[in-house]
Write a structure and sequence with these properties.
- This protein is of the alpha+beta class.
- It has one domain: Nucleoside Triphosphate Pyrophosphohydrolase, CATH 3.90.79.10.
- Helices cover 21% and strands 43% of the residues.
- It has 3 helices and 7 strands.
- The protein has helices at 50-62, 114-119, 125-134; strands at 4-13, 20-25, 37-38, 41-43, 65-81, 85-97, 106-112.
- The strands form 2 sheets. A 4-stranded mixed β-sheet has the order 4-1-6-5, sandwiched between helices. It has a 3-stranded antiparallel β-sheet with strand order 3-2-7.
- A hairpin with a 3-residue loop joins strand 5 and strand 6.
- The model has no long low-confidence stretch (mean pLDDT 93).
Length: 135
């Protein structure tokens, strides 16, 4: 049996008003994804560390620069995809600078309060769990 174990990093980005940046996954690129609203991040490249990967993902997905000094670890989650795939998702909270410029991975973005974020239709269930447990 071929079993896959991967590590992903995500970051809850907040603005000056405490609002959270949500990204809507592109339905053209991610046709099979049910919950389309999530936060920046992705799978890590094995040859670089967690924070370097997170900085890369934030830059690629939002066009903004992540401040590594602002990062606070929020939690780790196990995500199982079928019998042969396991992703360990590590989520941080952090700050960024710059203007939001989306990549082709996402079709839109919103800055929302925690309460409004938790009410949004199609919110990633792992993000919802992190928000309910940390804020």
């Amino acid at each position: 049996m071929n079993y896959s174990l991967q590590v992903g990093v995500k970051v809850v980005l907040k603005d000056e008003q405490g609002r959270i940046l949500l990204l809507k996954r592109s339905q053209d690129k991610y046709k099979n994804v049910k919950d389309t609203w999530d936060i920046p991040g992705g799978r890590i490249n094995a040859e670089t560390g967690l924070i370097e990967n997170l900085k890369r993902e934030v830059s690629e997905e939002t066009g903004m620069a992540l401040d590594p000094e602002s990062l606070k670890l929020l939690g780790a989650q196990d995500i199982f995809h079928g019998e042969n795939s396991h992703v360990v998702r590590i989520t941080y909270e952090g700050k960024v600078s710059g203007e939001t410029i989306l990549s082709d991975e996402h079709s839109e973005f919103k800055w929302l309060s925690k309460n409004d974020t938790l009410k949004i239709d199609g919110l990633d269930k792992y993000l919802k769990e992190i928000l309910e447990n940390n804020f």
